[in-house]
Amino acid sequence: GNSVTQMEGPVTLSEEAFLTINCTYTATGYPSLFWYVQYPGEGLQLLLKATKADDKGSNKGFEATYRKETTSFHLEKGSVQVSDSAVYFCALILSASKIIFGSGTRLSIRP
Amino acid sequence: DVKVTQSSRYLVKRTGEKVFLECVQDMDHENMFWYRQDPGLGLRLIYFSYDVKMKEKGDIPEGYSVSREKKERFSLILESASTNQTSMYLCAARDTVIYEAFFGQGTRLTVV
Questions:
Q1: How far is B101 from chain A (nearest CA, A)?
Q2: Is the bond leading into B61 cis (omega within 30 degrees of zero)?
Q3: Residue A80 CB: number of other CB atoms within 10 A?
Q4: In 3D, which of A107, A79, A96 has the Cα closest to residue A6?
Q5: How far does A79 lie from chain B, in Å, by closest CA?
């Protein structure tokens, strides 16, 4: 079946540290891949996306590359800020199908 | 950007009440979804709708029903609210070409 596995949190980093949140997927066909972010008390917002292999999505200093050979879509940021504290969800979408989310990773950034 | 609006941010209801959660989108997206989010369990799909009057059960439909009479509106109904339905409820709309999903701000429901 189709599934998304992302690293468990919580992840706690100091400001300006390098961030990686791992995400791997299992899917039949060719999914589009997404990272969503949820700030405290809010709904989910799209952070970035990639629709085919080797595409790189980027936004607000975050990046993720769609790696078909390793079935991965790891989220990275070179220098995190306190304002990046949130829950991050990796997701895949196949055509004519529902959205499949990972379990979410809570990120806390210390000043 | 697509805007998805949920009718309430916070709701408190009594056990046994019939509860309606409303969701409206301002674009012409075919797909709409209802999820619930609980600590440690992530997002779980309750129902989704792929067009007006069309619906399909998700992973946890028990105790819920939905209504989609118009394309822009997707309602989640708790037939008889129970305390184990206390949760954050998230609505989403998605275009079937772009695939990107847009979420509402969430409704935090407490059943007492």
A1: 8
A2: no
A3: 21
A4: A107
A5: 27
